[in-house]
Write a structure and sequence with these properties.
Layout lengths: L1 H16 L7 H15 L2 H25 L3 E7 L5 E6 L5 H26 L3 H18 L3 H20 L2 H18 L2 H12 L6 H9 L3 H24 L2
Antiparallel strand pairs: 1-2
Helix pairs in contact: 2-7, 3-4, 4-7, 4-9, 4-10, 5-6, 7-10, 8-10, 9-10
Protein name: Peptidase M50B-like
InterPro entries: Peptidase_M50B-like
Keywords: Membrane, Transmembrane, Transmembrane helix
Length: 240
């Protein structure tokens, strides 16, 4: 038994940290096209945006924990809105970083994923995403949220364990393209809502109250992070 564990653990570690061959350029471009197909048309976006919401609320939750706040729960709703609740001081750096993490999380996760793919670490990306979703599931506090996170985590788990290298590569590239491109759209949606006066309690407005910096500047930061991540991550993905 000990010999089996001694053999299996190094093999598992090698599989996790090892590199896989880059896909062909046409696969990278095809996955970009697939991401655009589920982002650009509004009817499809209303469904696929659930994945962006997972990243958005997960970003709030992760930074809340990293800054010492007590994360009490995350809710994901069928209209693609969400709510992350944490306890701690209602002001200060931890609260500011937590509030700023939502709109920047999808793009920054995409950028991190692109960095992993640029070094050929497809398996590491898939397993890391599965682990993050499993940890997030523990904090979900409503049925719809559980359903969406289980479906997302199940997809990563099935692909990472059952699919061949080519399918894994295509799936990983599609996910990262989706985060990079999809992360650009929510700040523009927030901008339109603010113009209509429908976003008085948005992340940008909360940050404005916390920092006394105009909400428009926080919105500019969201745009800058998403667009710079798309440019930088896109360059990495296309270098195959």
């Amino acid at each position: 038994m000990n010999d089996l564990a001694a053999t299996a653990l190094p093999d598992l570690w090698d599989r996790l940290t090892g590199t896989q061959p880059d896909p062909a350029l046409w696969v990278v471009l095809a996955t970009l096209a697939a991401a655009l197909v589920v982002i650009a048309p509004r009817p499809v976006w209303l469904i696929s945006r659930n994945a962006i919401t997972i990243a958005h609320e997960g970003g709030h939750g992760l930074i809340a924990l990293l800054t010492g706040r007590q994360l009490t729960g995350i809710r994901l709703h069928s209209d693609t809105s969400g709510l992350t609740v944490s306890r701690g001081k209602p002001y200060g750096l931890g609260m500011i970083l937590t509030a700023a993490a939502g709109y920047t999380a999808p793009s920054l996760l995409g950028l991190g994923g692109a960095a992993l793919l640029a070094t050929g670490r497809i398996t590491l990306l898939l397993w890391a995403a599965t682990a993050l979703l499993a940890l997030m599931l523990v904090m979900i506090r409503n049925a719809y949220g559980v359903l969406t996170v289980v479906l997302a985590g199940g997809a990563f788990l099935l692909v990472s364990w059952l699919a061949g290298p080519q399918v894994q590569a295509a799936f990983a590239y599609a996910v990262v393209w989706f985060l990079l491109v999809g992360g650009v759209r929510p700040p523009f949606e927030l901008q339109r809502k603010r113009r209509r006066g429908d976003a008085g309690d948005s992340d940008a407005d909360q940050l404005s109250r916390l920092t006394h910096v105009p909400a428009g500047l926080w919105l500019f930061l969201f745009h800058a992070v998403s667009l710079c991540s798309l440019i930088g991550g896109g360059r990495w993905l296309l270098e195959v």
